[in-house]
Amino acid sequence: xxxxxxxxxxxxxxxxxxxxxxxxxxxxxxxxxxxxxxxxxxxxxxxxxxxxxxxxxxxxxxxxxxxxxxxxxxxxxxxxxxxxxxxxxxxxxxxxxxxxxxxxxxxxxxxxxxxxxxxxxxxxxxxxxxxxxxxxxxxxxxxxxxxxxxxxxxxxxxxxxxxxxxxxxxxxxxxxxxxxxxxxxxxxxxxxxxxxxxxxxxxxxxxxxxxxx
Length: 213
Fold this sequence. Notes:
With about 210 residues, the protein is an alpha+beta fold. Helix content is about 45%, strand content about 25%. The protein folds into 2 domains: about 5-125, Jelly Rolls (Sandwich); about 130-210, Orthogonal Bundle (Arc Repressor Mutant, subunit A), CATH 1.10.10.10. The chain contains 8 helices and 11 strands. A hairpin with a 2-residue loop joins strand 4 and strand 5.
């Protein structure tokens, strides 16, 4: 969560309700940072559009404030955010959001720490993509891209091509690595998603650095 639980409740109460269907674009890369969305339910994916293609940067779930980086920095949107499921949000103007946060030094501190954490996460992801073998990249990507949903299995609601775009691998390479994990009983695959059946073993593989099953 980008803000404290108490501030989240205040922001949700003040925001205007907006619903999005799967596939809808919430935020467009390059747009002015005029507002933020509080993600109340559903999942979204964060995409970076480059001349060479589109990169999947992250998957976010309930409790996230979307569009914070642009609002805090005053720069244009750095990525596009697309709904993966039916999403319920609350919209607040940039000015009103910042006013709420600046009303408490503690909240400002929380927000800045969260922003720095996201920057470090991005740097770690890029380092892993450059240094790890394919199986290590896929294992860690599954853990990064899975969004826990209470009462439901842990899953990554993305295609194999999308997972590949997150770690710089082709769909065929991702499919091969997922097949090894499936044979080991760690994951189950279906069209457009990967269900993590054994999160503990997957985390152990990620910690090994190579993802050896």
